[in-house]
Amino acid sequence: MNKKKKESHKRNKKELTDLESSSDSENELNKNNSRKDFSVPILLQESEEWLIEPFQNKKVNLNQLQQTHTFKETFYDNESCYHISVCCDENDEYYLFSILDDTDDENDEIIIQKHGFNKSELFRIPRSDIKVPFTRKLFCMSYSDQALLTTHDDLFKNVEMSYDVDKEELDEILKMEEYFNKKQYKIGVMYIGEGQTTSKQYLSNTESSQDFEDFLEILGDKIELHGWDKYTGGLDVSEHTCGDHSIYTEYEGFEIMFHISTWLPFKPKDPEQVLKKKHLGNDLVIVVFVDGETKFDPKTFLSHQLHLIIAIQPVIHEKKKKYRVEISRKNYIKEFEPYLPDPPLFELEDLRDFLITKAIKGERVISTSGKFLQRYLTMRKEVLTQIFTGEVDY
C-alpha cells in the first residue's frame, strides 16, 4: 500500500471512530435530555390496562372539592323540608322527592331533589310557575303535591300516588345520597428505592430516604396510633398490629389517613407481607414515591382495588429541588381535574394541595365507574323499592 493510500485509510478509520464516538455521545445526551425533558412521562409504565395522564398547559384548578349542595345539609337536617314517595307505571320506577318549601327563601322558589333508580336531580321551581286550581284558592289552600311535581316536565308527568316517608326510610335515603359525599378517605403511600421493580421489594422496605421523609412531613401530622380517637382508615389503634405511627390530616372538612408502606410492620418470615398488602392493596388511590430513575409498572403491584396511581420523584430543576408528578389510572376511568400542568413540577409546599385534591376527586370518579357504579345503582334500586313496596330486606 503506497503512502497516500495508508494516510487515506488512517483518516477514514479515524473519521469512523469519531463518528461512532459522536453517535454514542449523542445517544447518551438524548438519554440525559429525556430525563431533563419534563414534558415526557418517564416514571410510569403505560399498558393496555393502565393509562398515563397527559400533561396540559392549563392553570391547575384546585377548587374541586367544594359542594354547593348536599342532601344532608339541604334536606335531611332542614325542618322546612318534607319527603314524598311516588310511583310511575310507565317504566315501573319508584321515585322519592325531597321538597324544601321555605317561605323565607329570598328567591321565592321551591327546591326539589328527585331520587330515582339511576340518579338524583336537583330542581328549582319558582312559586309563580305552580298552578293552584280555583277551588283550592277559594278555600285558601295552597298548591297540591301533584301540582308541584307536574310543573316541570322533567320532574314527573304521571303522579300515581304519594305518601310521607318515615324516619327510618329517610335514613336509608341519606346513606344512598351521601355515598359520594363521604368525608373520610384513606390513601396509600408506597416508597420505591433505586432499582426496585417487584412487589416483594416494595413491601420489604423498612427504611427510606431523606427526600421521602421530607415528603411525608408535608402530607400531615405524624400521629401515634395507640389510642387514636379520630378517623383510623382501617388501622388498628389498640393492639399495635399496624405499627406505632401513621400520617393523618384534615383538609377542607375531610379527614385523611395515609397508609405508609415503610411504617407498616415488616414480617421477615412472610415473603408476601400480607399485613402491608391488607391495607395498601385495598386502597383505591396510592401515591408512589420513586427514589431514583427506575420506572414503576403498575402491573407489578397486583390489587383489584387500586385504580389511581400518583407517582412522585424528587428532581433538581434550575438548581432547585422540585417534585415531578405523573399519574396513571385504570383505562375505564374517565379523565378528571385537577389536570397535571406542563411541565408537571411542584414545589414541596404546593404539592400537598394538588395531591390531596387529586386523590379525593379520584376516589369520587372511581366510585362512579365500572363495578363500583353497578354496585351503587343496585343499592339505589333496592332502597327505593324497599321504601315503596317493603319487598327488599336489609
UniProtKB/TrEMBL annotation:
Residue ranges annotated for the Rap-GAP domain, each copy included: 173-387
Biased composition (Basic residues): 1-13
Keyword Nucleotidyltransferase: no
GO biological process terms on file: regulation of small GTPase mediated signal transduction
Lineage top rank: taxon: Eukaryota
Region called Disordered, residue ranges: 1-32
A Pfam entry, by short name: Rap_GAP
Keywords of this entry: GTPase activation
One GO molecular-function entry: GTPase activator activity
Keyword field contains Transmembrane: no
Protein name: Rap gtpase-activating protein
Organism: Anaeramoeba flamelloides
